[in-house]
Amino acid sequence: MADKVISIAEVVGELRSGMTIGIGGWGSRRKPMALVRAIARSALTDLTVVSYGGPDVGLLVAAGRVRRVVTGFVSLDSIALEPHFRQARQLGAVQLTELDEGMLHWGLLAAARRLPYLPIRAGLGSDVLRVNPELHTVRSPYSDGEELVAMPALTLDVAFVHLNRADRQGNGQYLGPDPYFDDLFCLAAARSFISCERLVDPAELRSGGPTQSLLISRMMVNGVIETPHGAHFTSCVPDYDRDEAFQREYAASAASPQAWSRFRARYLDVDEAHYQRAVS
Amino acid sequence: MTGASRAEVCIVACAEAWRGDGEILASGMGLIPRLGAQLARRTFAPDLVLSDGEAELVGEDGAEGWLPYRAVFGIVAAGRRHVMMGASQLDRYGNQNISRIGSWAQPTVQLLGVRGAPGNTINHPTSYWVPRHSRRVFVDRVDLVCGIGYDRAAALGPPGNRFHEVRMVVTDKAVLDFQAPDRGMRLRSVHPGVSVDEVVAATGFPLHLPDQLPETRTPGDSELRLIRDRLDPAGLRDHELGR
Predict the structure, then answer these.
(1) What is the spatial distance between Cα A156 and Cα B190, in angstroms, rounded to a whole number?
(2) Rounded distance, CA B237 to CA B13, Å?
(3) Domain check: are A21 and A82 in the same one?
(4) Do the chains contact at A100 and B116, CB–CB below 8 Å?
(5) Is A123 left (phi over 0), alpha (psi -120 to 50) or beta?
(6) Is pTM beyond 0.80 here?
(7) Nearest CB partner across the interface for B145, out of A121, A126, A177
(8) Over the stretch A6-35, which tens digit does the pLDDT of each residue have?
(9) Are residue A199 and residue A159 in the same domain, yes or no?
C-alpha cells in the first residue's frame, strides 16, 4: 500500500489560483488550520472556498486568497460573527454564494455521488433563489408533480479535512462527537488531503476508538500530513478545546489594518513550527 | 415564590410554543428558547426530544441519542422538528432575515448568513425569539428573506408549502402569532407590565389587534422552582434581558 505522507509545502504546491477548494469541520471546530495558514501564506489568488465557514474562511479572505465563498454561514461559534469575513463583505471585497446549510450538504452529496444535482425542498420561497440566479428548480416526473430546488453538485478541485488520528495510508479517525461532513468533502473532490493530530500505525487506529470512528478511508485520500495541534485555534476534541483567548486575539485583529499587520507578522508570515511556538 | 421576572415570563411563553408537538426535536436557538424547551419537557410536553447543541440528544439523566449535524438535516427534511430561531428582521407575514442588512453585493452589515432558515421554514414549524422588541427588528420589509413567511408560502402554493408553519413570535414585550384573517401578525398577549400601545409603537407595521387581549400567563410556583433551582441556577436568564 502506498505511503501517502507528504509535507504541508507539497500540498500547497498542488494548488493553483482559481481552484475550488473545500474545507471540512464546522464553524470554529476541527478545521485544518495548519493547511489553511499555509494557503494564507502562499501567492495563490482567486480561490473559491466551500465550507461550513469559520476562521478558515476569515483567514483566507483576510489574506487576500479568495474570490468567492460558498457557504450557509461564517461564524466563530463563541463569537457569532466572523469579523474578517464580515469586513470583507462590507467592503465588497469577496463574492458570496449563500446557501441554506442543508443545500450545502446536498450539493456535497451530489458531487460525492457524481450526480449533477439532488432535489431538495430547502430554498423554495426564500431569497436564496433570488440572489443565486444560477439555481433552478425541477419538477418531479412522478404523479405528485412537486417542484423542488435542483441543488447542483458542489464539485471540488481539492478538499482539506483535519482528523484526530490517521495512518500513513490515509485512513482517518475522528474521536470527537461529530464527523461533520469530512467524508463528503473528500469524495466531492478530485484530490483530497487529510491532516491529523498524530500519525499512528493501523493497530493503534483500531484500538483508539470504535470501528465507526474510522470515518475516512484511504480510497478517499491522496495525501496525509501530520500537524500536531494543527486545528488550533479551533476545537479538536478530545485532543483539545478551542483556544478562546487566541480566538479573541484573532477576532481583534480585524479592528484595523495595523492590527491585522501585527497579527499577520506574528502568526502567519512564519512557518507552522514557529506558529506553534508562538501560541504555546 | 417571589414574583416572576420578565425573563421567566418569556421562558414560559417560549415553552408554550412547543405545547402539543409530541415526540419531535425541540430546537431552541439562544438561552431563553433553550430554557423554554427544557421547561416544556419537564412539565406539559414530556415527549419532546432535546439536543445539547453539539451532537447529543439529552434525556433527563444523560445522553439518549446521537445527532451530528448531518443527521440534523435529515430530521429537518423529515419534519420531526420545531425550531425557535432568532431574527434580525421580521416582517408582518413572518419573513425572517439573519443574513445581512443592505445590498447583496456589498451589505452595510454582514450578519450570520441564511444558516438553516430556508430549510427549516419550508419543512417544519418555526417560531421566533426576539429579545428586544423594536422597530429595528419588526420592519415593513426584510432585506433578505431567509426564513419564509405566509405571503411567500402562499405564492409558492401547494404542494410545496404544505409543511410551512410559522407558529409564534415571543419577544421581551409580548407574544404574537399569525392568526390575523390574512395570516398577518397578530398580537396574542402582552407580558405583565407592558401596554398594548408600547408594543404597537415598537412594531414597524400595523399589528392585528384582537378584541380580547389577554396578559401572557405568568409561571406557576412549580415552574419557577424548576427554572430557578434546576434549569438556570446561575441566573443567566436575567442578563439576556438586562433585568
Answers:
(1) 51
(2) 14
(3) yes
(4) yes
(5) left
(6) yes
(7) A126
(8) 999 999 999 999 999 999 999 999 999 999
(9) yes
pLDDT at residue B2, as a whole number: 75
Asked if B119 and A86 come within 8 Å (Cβ–Cβ), the reply is no
Asked whether residue A107 is assigned to any structural domain, the reply reads no
CA distance A122 to A106: 10
Verify whether the Cβ–Cβ distance A90 to B107 is below 8 Å: yes
Same domain, A127 and A204: no
What is the pLDDT, as a whole number, of residue B243?
45
Each domain of chain B, given as residue ranges in start order, spans 6-241
Which residue in B has a C-alpha nearest to residue A127's C-alpha? B145
Given an 8 Å threshold on Cβ–Cβ distance, is B54 in contact with A127? Answer: no
Query: Which of chain B's residues have a Cβ under 8 Å away from the Cβ of A126?
Result: 114, 117-118, 121-122, 145-148, 152
Parent domain of A140: 118-152
pLDDT at res. B1: 64
Contact between chains at A121 and B119 (C-beta distance less than 8 A): yes
Q: Do A81 and B110 touch (CB under 8 A)?
A: yes
Q: How far apart are the CA of A179 and the nearest CA of chain B, in angstroms?
A: 7
CATH code for the domain in which residue A235 is found = 3.40.1080.10
Question: Chain A partners of B77 at a C-beta cutoff of 8 Å?
Answer: 102, 120-122
| Residue A23 CB partners (closer than 8 Å, separation 6+) | A31, A32, A36, A49, A50, A51, A56, A57, A159, A160, A161, A185
Report the gap between the CA of B57 and the closest CA in chain A (Å): 11
Are A166 and A226 contained in the same domain? yes
Kindly state whether residue A132 falls inside one of the protein's structural domains: yes
Q: How far apart are CA A235 and CA A241, in angstroms?
A: 4
Enter the C-alpha cell of residue A181.
461532513
pLDDT on residue B118? 98
Q: Domain B6-241: what homologous superfamily?
A: Glutaconate Coenzyme A-transferase (3.40.1080.10)
Q: Give the distance from residue A278's alpha carbon to the nearest chain B alpha carbon, in angstroms.
A: 30
The reply to whether A168 and A246 lie within a common domain is: yes
Question: Chain A contacts of B107, Cβ < 8 Å?
Answer: 89-90
C-alpha cell at B91: 416582517
Residue B68 to residue A147, Cβ atoms within 8 A: no
Please tell me which of the candidates B77, B114, B147 has its beta carbon nearest to residue A98: B114
Closest-approach residue (CA) in chain B for A125: B152
Whose cell is 430561531? That residue is: B85
Nearest CA to B34 out of B241, B242, B237, B197 is that of: B237
Is the ipTM higher than 0.90? The answer is yes
Is A91 within the bounds of a domain? Answer: yes
Q: Which residues in chain B have their CB less than 8 angstroms from residue A80's CB?
A: 112
Cα–Cα separations (whole angstroms), residue A197 to A4, A237, A239, B115, B214: 16, 11, 8, 29, 58
Residue A192 lies in a domain: yes
Same domain, A173 and A265: yes
B130 has pLDDT over 90: yes
Grid cell in block for residue A48: 473559491
Closest of A70, A35, A63 to residue A191, by C-alpha: A35
Nearest to A82 by CA among A96, A214, A270: A96
